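Two folds, back to back.
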Amino acid sequence: MKKSIKLLLFLFLALGVAASLKIAVERVRVERANRSVTLAVDYQEVSRLAWWTGLKEEEVLDRFKARGINAVLFKEQTLAELVPQYLRVYSAEEAARLFPEMKGYFHPGRLYLVGDRVVLKRVKIHLENKLPSPLEVIPDVSSGDLLALSIPSFNPAELENLGVGFPEDKLDMVIRKGLYLLPQIRTWPGARAASVASTLRSIEGYGPYIAALLFNDNVLPGYPGALPVMAEEIKRLGVPVGLIEFFPQQGLKQLALLLDKRAVRVHSIPLKDMASLSWEEGVERLSLAASERNIRILILHLFFRGDTSEWLNTNLKYVDTVRASLAKEGLERGLAQPFSGLPSSRIWWSLMALGILGGGILLLKELGLSRLSWILGGLGLLGWLFALGLGYVTLARKIMALGSAVIFPTLALWLAFKDGHRPLGLAASFKLVLRSTLISLVGGLILAGLLTDTTFLLKLDEFMGVKASFLLPLVLFIVAAVYWEEKERFWAVWRRWLNQNLTVLFLLLASLGAIVIFLYLNRTGNESVGLLPLEGQLRSLLERVLLVRPRTKEFLLGYPFFLLALGWGYRHRYLPFWLLALAGQISIVNTLAHLHTPLLISLLRIFNGLWLGLLLGIVLVALANGVRSRVKL
């Protein structure tokens, strides 16, 4: 490669790196400024705890507040929850017997709600908005006040889901105690813009005291048609919406975008897990959510375990320990705030895209595809400019980010392969591993810079093509390594491999390889096959010892087998070692593609993976060389 061409490509890379570092500095500033975490308890659970301990709900809240709780979750009440404490439901015949002087108001085929007048008035507002047929109001003939509500007879199961607002007396009590509110609104069938607006206006007086507005169901009320009206009403309230982690809600991302990304991430441990979880494990999960995933509202479900009667003290200790754990992470209890704006500019994005294209051209040239490199590089540049011109900015950034995730790990390992094609000593191997890690880190920083904005930090949008980014570099490397070794015999070698006789050993190895590939691909992205045996315990240990746990693909597989591959050189039978090394480099870039994780946490994770992986690599090389000296490999 001509020196002038190499200098030009390095200039492209330098511009991309400089732009990504500028964005990285701004991102760290924004992330470090957003350190307030809201700690909430569920009012229903507080009420249950008060009942079993013989205390008043106000007393239990006082104790939780003293330990660190500063918000209370209120799920929208249903008719079923109000019966029979506040309301009773009667048939026409029953109502006529109860109010004989008004029996002319009661008609067969309808149900009648009677009870607490304050609650009844609140229920009236919501039923008028949410029922498909008209609601009939029956006045008290003696006073003229509201006596009963008449609704069509329906399946009692509907009582379980139909939301009828929030208990104002409880909301007011919580506010008087200096705690924030987390109202959670239910969806109802046939929601329209007008009924959605009316439902939200029922809580507009509580706007200054609401930490975030949550939604209860898989689909937002009125989705999709009512979202613009909903957004306007929430803007009037002046509150952010809560994005509940691991609970996708149809319409919520669009709503957050309509609100100019005024949203905060929320986490709670599922109730089904609370029965088997220790409070120490709960503390660890909540602390990790806040420190490593930008969660800013933690809903602490309480423990009601049958193996102890000390429910109150156990839960107070739980809350106290969560607060202390967050403080150790540099987080403080307070009102959760949306992220402040991050700088975004087509100029910076274009510089980073130029860096990725420069890396791609350099990779193809190193692979011996010089002419193709300029053709694809030119097409990539034209495609980028064309996409920007048509307004497909986000799509262009995501495609270019995928390119970075494929190009830089492959380039990192291919350069090491060319220099380490023959066996190297440990010192020379260390140098190549460090150089490769730096190249992959450059690709990861450019990728992260290209996707850095609040949309990705909140996971309203995500890096595209995770599985492709893990698979394509492996395919490229396999083809390139075999060609490098075989040259003109490349196709003959592949034909010979494909025409191998089927043996039991071959089938066993093929099955093992298929399982490995399945686990490899399914343990990437946002959904996976779960943890392997003992992996959870290992992760917890590493978190406690290292503060930030390195990724298994890096410290346990990537770096150790990278050192082994360089120490033994390349032969086709050693190809799996090189592929494991490449998986570690891919993982570095993928770590930085987790935009919802604070950047400094991701960098520390990579650093921990590097030094720990090199230490394990030294052990692996020593053991492997000992075995190799006794067994022909």
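---
second:
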Amino acid sequence: MLQINEFLSLIDSFIGGAVWFPYALLGTGLFFTIYLKFPQVRFFRHALRIVSGKFDRKDLPGDTSHFQALSTALSGTVGTGNIAGVAFAVHLGGPAALFWMLVTAALGMCTKFVEVSLSHKYRNKLDDGTMAGGPMYYMKNADFKIGGKKVNLKWLATIFAVATVLSSFGTGSLPQINSISSTMLSTFGVNQMLTGAVLAICLGLVIIGGIKRIAAVTSKLVPGMAIVYFIGAFAVIFFNIENIIPSFVSIFSDIFTGTAATGGFIGANLAFAFNRGVNRGLFSNEAGQGSAPIAHASAKANEPLSEGMVAILEPFIDTIIICLVTGLVLLSSGVWSEKHNNQFEYAEIEILNDSYKESNPDNSKTIYDHLNGIKALPVYTGALNVVDGKIQNEDITFLHSRSFAENVMVYKNEGLLTDEVFTGSVEIVNGTVTDSKPLKFIGESLVHSAPLTAIAFNRGFFGDYGQYIVSIGLLLFAFSTAISWSYYGDRAMTFLFGSKSVIYYRIVYVIAFFFAAFQDTTIIWTLSGITIALMTIPNLIGIIWLRKDMKQTIKEYGEFFEKTFPGEKHPKF
């Protein structure tokens, strides 16, 4: 697993984790915001009127209402990114990462407006009567030109469709069930394999009914899960009300410098906070990724821009509201910078070749430079000498989850009802545990992802019962995401291989969903970063190329609206 994670991290470092990726994402959103004169602001109120059904007509082509399409798309974006992803971003980049998540959402509102409008404009009606759309269809059907000559982008559509199938696993299936099973294990003690098996069966029963059953489920699930989550979140926020203003200050005070060390948090520089905040922001709202347009393509509408306006609401609800609330829970409760007793994941253990003390400011600065990629330190290769579970080596520094690990104990990991301490040697190569003996390390360190959010929810009016709200919320959020992404994947399979391939895709999707319940969290997060990038890059190229088409589409909608709804108030198109 360690070798796989290292290989995936290497790939991710050139695409999703590369310096240029967040700039490309934000740059596209900023370009369209200026080019189209801030449509996310101008059309926001009109979008609310559309999704309320004010302009709906029964005779329009499509499979779902605007609200159902929005619910399906939201169920695809409101998932582990809102619970686990926010905690992961704050863990990596500190409170400053939250600011960059919000910036990503504000610009992402415009990006999503564009990609959904274009995808809806060039959607296809299939032989079975259902609608199919998404970036692969505008890449195939739109007129792309260079120097007045038409360019065939079917090859790019194929790349996007393949990436969508991969991303349905890397974003929609694998990380969702992994976060659910991890939280169910830590909260209720439920076996991860059992969680995966039960939910895999439920998933199969839903997705076999296609878009209409998916839309029917998500349109009821999304509002319900939001209510449950907000009750728990505000119970923590109001319990720690005296920390709300300092929490807001911490989000905005270090945006251009990075977050300084505090508590067990070593600190993060600007580049790290910016990159992780934008990356997790995209994982949360998926603006620019091209996934949500696939759901919106099913909506009943004659004019593509109306559905594009509905899509403006997605990043606002998903990131600006839900992710900000989660961030305030983490910051106001203070758990993000505290060390907690936990079982260490091998992929996040790093053992350095010298002894550094957290209490020594110079040593802390040295570790800060190491963790933020400024100056790497030599790592340890050799044996850990362990007696009665305690590590005897004095010339090493044990890091876990980007923090100094404390009170580390080594136990035999043999599935016994009670933990038995280990005595012997543990093989370490290049700072990582490579020993084949079944061992587990338990100690105090920073925690991230869903377990951190669960700890934070215990710091409210509900006390220790707060973690159950996270478990229920995560189950609903993540399960609904897996439902929606199965639809994205089956539309991509239909585009690539025809409708007969969908049944085989669904079988593999459900099986992978089950196995991901008990795989390493870090590997799955790394994989999701790669698949996000593989979808995003072709989509950004396509929508920028069709910028003039988009501006013309806005003009056409204005003419259509004034003709169809004379006398109705509307923004300037």
